[in-house]
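Below is one such record:
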Amino acid sequence: MNILAVESSCDETAVAVVRDGREVLCDCIASQVALHREYGGVVPEIASRKHLEAICALADEALLRSKLTRKDLDAVAVTYAPGLIGALLVGVNFAKSAALSLGLPLIPVHHISGHIAANYLAFPELTPPFLCLVVSGGHTLIVDVADYTQFHILGTTRDDAAGESFDKIARVLGMPYPGGAALDKAADGGDPGRYRLPVAQVTDAPLDMSFSGLKTAALNIIHHAEQTGETLDVPSLCASFSAAVTQTLVPRTMAALRQTGYQKLAVAGGVAANSHIRAAFEREAAAAGVSLYLPPLHLCGDNGAMIGAQAYYEYRAGHTADSTLNAYATMPIDA
């Protein structure tokens, strides 16, 4: 089954062709990073306009690179939630038009389930059930993947997402967008014990997380150094911040894994590219004797291939839509 998949939830216009949920025939991405770098982050209106400019040509390029024609397609899939509403609407309306004109089924895909499905592309042997930590700029979730289309949230952030926290501290430190990657690189060689940063505990929900206090503490250190003329040890602050985020994510994820009894653990989302978090999970998974699935870096960020992978299983479960499909800025994965 050849699925044309569209992803436009934030600042990457992506169109891919995926076969049977596991084989990527092509994955085309038009990045807006250079454009938004001038503003230190994504400007939603600009992102939406750039999606409009790129999406039609990108779909043609995807077909060309996959060596398929429109007649070879079996379905059209699209991210419909969650994300920037204007950006999502571009992808949804394009996909609806494409499905209608080609007489093909339309498959709506939740963005988070797409991130989880990125692991199916990297690891053909991976099948549910398993536990997955999804960490990105807007989301931090510990998910019980009971089946390909059945998800249960075991833990989440009560405030900021891990990725948003990385980006905010990086921006205040003057690092280029996207800040998370720059902060990760800057942390190399730093002393993770140099600065004392909090690791929050949610007493009534031990698997839940909070990053707002951590972010505020780091900002206070930066501002204090600026106001007093103190030299800020940037590599060590980055290393300390990365360590605090890691100490928030990893123990809770491992606790959730023990709670489910699963022997398979996956990590997904843009923050899954963080080298310190990846190394920590590798150590903990090896110590626990469980199988760890860390997607390659090119599948951690937003891409169309992950949407095409999840779409195959949504279609098999009978989850299709018609021309009334709408986009939603927020929507839980277990709705």
